[in-house]
Design goal:
This protein is an alpha/beta fold. It is built from 8 helices and 9 strands. Helix 1 packs parallel to helix 8.
Length: about 230
């Protein structure tokens, strides 16, 4: 049976101010989906609440809207997947070999506090599966503890969207917390590229993380390598 991948996307459509939209950064999903599809993997889309996953408007504009994202927008079937994601509470961890957290600033609100996502992540990891995240997707790992009570990320090398990148993107005052600092507080061994907005992937065994949207394809490739 081919590997089974659970992609996690957000349900949040805006920053704290409802007039400021955000959502899924589409290319972080599309790059991974295309790569996994090419390997024949079985893929499922889920979100904390289920239902629609809104899209980050900035991810749909040049230069962020690349070929994979344009193809997704043009595919009615795939867009329908984003309108009808599975609810995390209905997902059985034993049905998947890897979990892949996508990003977009929206996930900072709904990923960390989702206990079903914490359960799925813990169970997949403790049963030998892969836990992966790209960009802000690593916020989905902030509150996950292993069965022994230890933070999943404690003592583990990882990366994700940096505070410097938040400032350069002009959203540091809009986000609810500094994800990089919170990871360090959890005991994570946070790493980042010397230059902002360049691809960086960190592989620590079965924990695989990418720093930013530019890291999406390389993060997915590392998942493929880990799954063998």
């Amino acid at each position: 049976m081919p590997p089974r991948i659970l992609h996690v996307v957000t349900n949040v459509a805006h920053y704290t101010d409802p007039s400021q939209p955000t959502g899924l950064w589409l290319s972080e999903l599309s790059h991974a989906w295309d790569l996994f599809a090419g390997q024949g993997y079985v893929q499922t889309l889920a979100s904390p609440q289920g239902g629609a996953a809104p899209l980050e408007p900035r991810s749909l504009k040049w230069p962020n809207l690349d070929g994979t994202a344009r193809a997704w927008l043009a595919d009615a079937g795939r867009m329908d997947l984003l309108r009808h994601t599975a609810a995390a509470n209905d997902i059985r961890a034993q049905d998947f070999d890897a979990i892949y957290f996508t990003g977009g600033h929206a996930v900072m609100w709904d990923f960390p506090g989702s206990q079903p996502l914490q359960r799925i992540t813990r169970d997949i990891y403790e049963h030998g599966g892969v836990v992966a995240a790209v960009c802000h997707g690593y916020c989905g790992l902030l509150e996950t503890r292993l069965s022994n009570g230890q933070w999943l990320v404690q003592g583990r090398r990882l990366t994700g969207f940096s505070w410097r990148e938040e400032m350069l993107a002009g959203v540091a005052r809009k986000v609810p917390y500094d994800a990089e600092a919170r990871m360090r507080e959890r005991g994570a061994l946070y790493e980042k590229a010397w230059l902002p907005f360049v691809s960086k992937v960190v592989v620590d065994g079965r924990l695989i993380t990418g720093q930013n949207p530019q890291s999406a394809r390389a993060t997915a490739q590392a998942v493929v390598q880990q799954l063998g």
